[in-house]
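Tutorial handout. Part one gives the primary structure; part two gives the three-dimensional structure as tokens.
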Amino acid sequence: MNKRLLPLAVLFSTIWLLTSCLKNDDADMDYPHDTAITAFSLGTLNRYQTTLSSKGVDSTYRTTVEGKQYGFSIDQNNALIFNADSLPYGVDAKKVVCNITSKNSGVILIKSMTSDSLRLYAATDSVDFSVPRVIRVYSSSQEQFRDYTIRLNVHQEKADEMKWNLVGTQSQLANLTAMKAVTVTRQLYVFGLENGQTTVYSAASSAAAQWQKLTPNVVLDANAYKNVAVFQGKLYLLNGTTVLSSADGKTWNSVAAVNANMQSLVAVSGLGVHLLGTDAKIYLLKHGETQLAPEALDAAGSYLPTDNWNAVVLKAESGTKENVLLIGNRSVGAYAGDAHAVVWNRLILDAANALAEPWSYYAAEGQYALPRLVNLQVVGYDGGLLALGGTGLGAAKQKAFEHFYYSGDGGLTWKNNAVYQLPKAFNSSDTAFAMTVDADNNIWMVCGGTGQVWKGRKNSAGWQKTDTVFTSSSSSGS
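Part two.
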């Protein structure tokens, strides 16, 4: 850091002499009295990261980050300067070159970290921003000044790192022979098969060690546990030949009666409830209606999933209302040779033309196709899709829970992302486990056989960005 300290007396004497000379040239020159910082930006920053060498030894290496890519807000009302989007983990905040602009070229000084002394700011000097720093800007007339506090926000955890917490072990969940987990905002639900009947357990995500067995107002059949979906804060379920909805998992209301050919409730979207028929077709039950209508498919219905189906409604893109992904496995008995799961996509442009767009089949091929796994689980996460499953089925030879598979392109390709790793103590039956995601981007894993309940999150998925940008006009100091 440049240690050139200029006593204020000398500094302002110099400014006064310069001002006097200028006044001799133009006696009518007027000097503004207001003062403000009008712009702040960073130069190139050093970033230090740690990696594991081939010998298993940690080593540190240096890279650089272009600081100008990170915008700074200037809150003139409260005299604060800060970056809403934090700098990456590992950035060296102790040696920072910054560019500061003042109104009317007012003189800028930086306050010491240990005393009230001030030194003149220079754009070539490095500044220690590991703690908030105070800068002072004087008006050109030297009659007024204003102090600003600069906060340089740097992430204190690695973005691409997964952290898991074993919330508890629940014996009642351990006894379920099959299960499906869903989340309504921050309320967790596990629908499972117990003694040949669907049972429902629930817990708040903030108290996930305290599970309650619910008593529904209807008797749920043995297939109901796998015919569950969530849409706009409500649970939907196919129970026999009746579509039900509930806000709490206890009180269920009839949505509509359907014919016995409807074997599965596979998804709920803004259009309505999507059901799979025994005739290898998908039918739509529009919200508020009671009649089913067949939906168009762009491939043979034999490619539709009949086991371990998962529906994920992705955030709408430009010009599209919704993007519904249906992912699962075909029958093991009928298609023993399959090595990959099947993926279907449904673009919903608008309600008026709801049936105009067909379900599109993504042919599984190549090394990046999603493997066909026992009890395949798929959730929307981190802007894409995250899948996990047990042992490989049919021609798939994967080991149980061998990898998470991530798709960032809407289900077209699936890759083993090393960021997503199960905790070492994870222990579950591969035929009875469930995965869901809550409103805070936590991944929940419920394990059959052991009753383990795990909560995990990728660090960056928990970061919140502040969109506030302060544009208030500058004000005079005192």
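Part three, for discussion. Residues 391 and 397 are 7 Å apart (CA to CA). The longest strand covers residues 44-52.
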